[in-house]
Amino acid sequence: MAYWPPEARSEPHSLLQERVPEVLPWRFNPKDPFDRPWQSWAKSAILSGRVCHSKVLQPVADEANGQRDRPFDSHGETPEGPERSLTTCEEARRLRSRMLDSKVSALGLRHVVPDQFNYLADDPTHLTTKPYHTRLLFMGQIGRSNIVAQGYPGVNIYDILNQEDEFSLEESGFQYFKIPVDITHWTNETARHQCLPLMEEWLKDFFKAQPVYIFTDTMSQ
């Protein structure tokens, strides 16, 4: 609601007004949260050949040799020598990372190793502009995406099935919750009219938030 529509007379607004003016009147409506016109916008972009790809940097030699965990300075360069001291935040992050690695090792979790795993790159652009990826057809000189990813080899992806309770948001950066919902036949209608209202109430209670807007849902089989 804060970022749409684009500011009048801005480049995105002018481009959209000229080429796809039908997208500008759209507004998020909390009473109709599943009004998602970007699905049709994305489909139109794909059909017109305007598929939006993110830039992915390939692994470099040092990363292939397992030296990708060296600290980076604010310019994305790897400093050398003892003169560079870690900040308190960096020290805490590394400590949590080591603790998490130890826990994963102790649990003996099954894992797979893909040929390459992509993370958001330490790109200078992201120091001044938030990473974005738009589903609109085009954004002129701004570009449809400014995301730059970095590929890494040798990244383990672990299966934590039946071990979900071992991980918390504070320690691991993610957490699983099982919220029983009495639905035997899952459809878009039952998900939206039975499951999501319960989820909304649970989120309000857990995060002490008011209000809560659920604007999309995903069902996996």
Please describe what this structure looks like.
- 30% of the residues lie in helices and 7% in strands.
- Among the domains are: 53-77 and 87-159, no CATH class; 177-221, no CATH class.
- The chain has six helices and five strands.
- By secondary structure, the chain is mainly α.
- The protein has a three-stranded mixed β-sheet with strand order 1-4-3, with no helix packed on it. Strands 2-5 form a two-stranded antiparallel sheet.
List keywords for this structure.
single chain; 221 residues; mainly alpha; three-stranded mixed β-sheet; two-stranded antiparallel ribbon; 7% strand
Describe the secondary-structure layout.
Elements: H1 11-19, H2 38-47, E1 55-57, H3 61-64, H4 88-107, E2 111-112, E3 117-120, E4 148-152, E5 157-158, H5 169-172, H6 188-207
Order of helices and strands: HHEHHEEEEHH
Strand content: 5-15%
Q: Could you state the oligomeric state of the chains shown? A: single chain
Instruction: Name the structural class.
Output: mainly alpha
Q: Over all CA atoms, what is the radius of gyration?
A: 22 Å
* Contiguous runs where pLDDT drops below 50 for at least 5 residues: 63-83
Tell me, what's the shape? globular
Q: How would you sum up this structure in a few lines?
A:
With 221 residues, this protein is mainly alpha-helical. The protein contains six helices and five strands.
